[in-house]
Design a protein that fits this description.
The chain is mostly helical and about 120 residues long. It is built from seven helices and no strands. The protein has one domain. About 80% of the residues lie in helices and about 0% in strands.
Length: about 120
């Protein structure tokens, strides 16, 4: 297995951890009003999407997950920046990110015997 895949999986895991840490004890209103917070979270989503895009497809294919979603979300943030609604980002944080984190943890454990 390629060590680059491991590094990308760890980047995703760390980015998800950071997003949760950044948004801990925040409300949607805080998120809307805090440009620094909003920008930091978007940057972490870019890292997640770019990392998923660079992981070998053979590895991703072993695990049932809609891998196109983090890649598409990254592209949306990068190319449609002026159409981003904070509510959509907030919803993704609270309704989708844990599922991705769980899958990344499974891959890290199964493929690399890595647990944090």
């Amino acid at each position: 297995m390629d060590d680059r895949n491991l590094q990308r999986l760890l980047h995703i895991h760390e980015a998800i951890f950071s997003i949760h840490k950044f948004c801990q004890d925040k409300t949607l209103e805080n998120f809307r009003e805090d440009d620094l917070l909003f920008s930091a979270v978007l940057q972490k989503f870019l890292i997640i999407g770019e990392s998923v895009a660079k992981i070998d497809q053979d590895l991703l294919d072993k695990y049932t997950y809609p891998w196109y979603k983090p890649r598409a979300f990254r592209n949306f943030i990068a190319h449609e920046y002026f159409h981003i609604r904070p509510e959509r980002i907030w919803d993704t944080i609270h309704n989708n990110l844990n599922g991705l984190d769980e899958m990344i943890r499974i891959i890290l454990k199964d493929e690399y015997n890595y647990e944090d």
